[in-house]
Amino acid sequence: MKPPSRPEALRRRIPDAAVTRLPVYLQILNKSITEGVSQLSSDQLAGLAGLNAAKVRKDLSYLGSYGTRGVGYDVAYLVYQIKRELGLLNDWKVVVVGAGNLGNALTNYAGFSSRGFEVSAVVDIDSAKVGKKVGGVVVRHVDDLLSIVNNDKVSIGVIATPPASAQRAAELLVAAGIKSILNFAALVLTVPSDVSVRSVDLGMELQILGYYEQLNRPVACQ
Amino acid sequence: MKPPSRPEALRRRIPDAAVTRLPVYLQILNKSITEGVSQLSSDQLAGLAGLNAAKVRKDLSYLGSYGTRGVGYDVAYLVYQIKRELGLLNDWKVVVVGAGNLGNALTNYAGFSSRGFEVSAVVDIDSAKVGKKVGGVVVRHVDDLLSIVNNDKVSIGVIATPPASAQRAAELLVAAGIKSILNFAALVLTVPSDVSVRSVDLGMELQILGYYEQLNRPVACQ
DNA sequence: ATCTGTGAATCAATTCACAGCC
DNA sequence: GGCTGTGAATTGATTCACAGAT
Q1: pLDDT-based confidence at B114, cuts 50/70/90?
Q2: Closest residue, CA to C1' of C4
Q3: Is B70 left (phi over 0), alpha (psi -120 to 50) or beta?
Q4: Can you give the distance from the CA of residue B53 to the C1' of nucleotide C3 in angstroms?
């Protein structure tokens, strides 16, 4: 047993559950900075995030030992460490498929660029929409997907099409070399096993919320 | 053996992780019906959902024993049972706060009404938007929230405002008696402990996706 | 022969509780 | 005295594996 020198390759894995909470901490910490807060204890952070202090400490300990005993965490430094871990120190290029209502909303979404993501392009299959501007980005034809992804080094695809076109959109993204897809269509996508998909479906979210509402009431997780 | 009369109160609790998968099964089953499929085995369902058969069987067993050994599950009956469990046999009324891009997209969202949810109203604080139509629903002023919620028995609020207004929107919903909130604003909301919040944040989803992308690649859960 | 339903076993996540540092 | 970092204990979720139903 002699683990000290930690080669980047076999960096200890952060548990999935903790990974999903890191962006939450990041958001809270960023907000705290704008409010002039420079130190936070695990207890305070937990209060802001709706979690408990032990979980916060455990989560942050996966990043390394960046707190100060008796004091708390330096907000700015923690922001840096979380960004480093999430790979947010360099920008990510994103392509949005579908220039309808949702594609529009997503592309206009302010929280995008402020968080290290840049919309390289919005593509649509409808030639009538090509050339129009959506949130400062010109809509291009879906046939250009491959060259957009290659030329612009796009690594993430966002599907904002109607459900009927979503599987086709996923296949086009995969064919263009995309390995990470964020899917907003109400459809379970079928993709090769080396492609990551996260699906966000409004209907499903409501159904889950409804379940807890009908039950006792005070449940669910933010 | 006589389980029939199951006192609503002490119905066995379904694990949270299983609850979040029920809507996925529901979506797949509904699609199967339109394709004329009437029977599915846990193995087939697992393939369609990207899960394994044991998990599917365990999840479905929480609903009761509705499969047939040696055969599989009757699709239509399973749909009914999942809907019953999720409380989707009766409609839910929803109010959307924020008539911007996102509110627009959400209200127009087809998957809404088809899944037991009805948008009672869209409200906005901007009087200029009041009276305009969004997806067949007239935009009303946020001051009417209380009466809308009361008169129309609305039980779920959806926040589709800019982050700066989201906390205020949440407070208005809570004041109007709403106990379940679906939040699309990039902000962690502070609400009383008897209120359920589910937050969906595009930026966070991308960050999580980015983490797995930068790491090895093939990860994440649909 | 096939496929469900479910205890038992395993694996992951959370919480506890306290030693170590400020 | 206050707060972090972390093993140990606990709780929850997943997977195994097989008895039981058709």
Answers
A1: confident
A2: B69
A3: left
A4: 11
Residue with tokens 């005993």: A69
- What tens digit of pLDDT does each residue of A170-209 get? 999 999 999 999 999 999 999 998 999 999 998 999 999 9
CB-based contact B27 A187, cutoff 8 Å: yes
Please check whether residue A92 is in contact with residue B210, taking contact to mean a CB–CB distance below 8 angstroms.
yes
Residues in chain A, overall count: 222
Sheet with A39-40, edge to edge strand ranges:
A39-40, A72-74, A67-68
Could you give the CA distance from residue B98 to residue B109 in angstroms, rounded to a whole number? Answer: 15
Query: What domains are there in chain B, each with its CATH number?
Result: 15-85 (1.10.10.10), 92-204 (3.40.50.720)
The answer to whether B19 faces chain A, any CB pair under 8 Å, is yes
Output the pLDDT for position B20.
97
Counting beta carbons within 10 angstroms of the beta carbon of residue B6, is it exposed (0 to 12), middle (13 to 18) or buried (19 or more)?
exposed
Q: Does A159 touch chain B (CB under 8 A)?
A: no
B113 CA, D13 C1': Å apart? 33
Q: Find the CB nearest B211 among A19, A105, A111.
A: A19
**Separation of CA A15 and C1' C11 in angstroms?**
12
Cβ proximity of A14 and A61 under 8 Å:
no
Cβ of B213 within 8 Å of Cβ of A19? The answer is: no
Contact B203 A117 (CB under 8 A): yes
pLDDT per residue over A121-178, tens digit each? 999 999 999 999 988 899 999 999 999 999 999 999 999 999 999 999 999 999 999 9
- Among chain B residues, the shortest Cα distance to A110 is held by B162
Question: What's the confidence (pLDDT) of residue B219?
Answer: 55
- Collapse the DSSP code of B32 into the 3-class scheme (helix H, G, I; strand E, B; otherwise coil) and give the result: helix
Distance, CA of A15 to CA of A25 (rounded, Å): 15
Instruction: Give me the amino acid identity at A62.
Output: Y
Alpha-carbon distance of A99 to B148, in angstroms, equals 32
Contact status of A54 with chain B (Cβ, < 8 Å): no
Q: List C-alpha distances in Å: B138 to A30, A100, A105, B99, B124.
A: 36, 20, 20, 10, 11
Tell me if A217 and B179 make a contact (CB, 8 A cut-off): yes
pLDDT at B76 over 50: yes
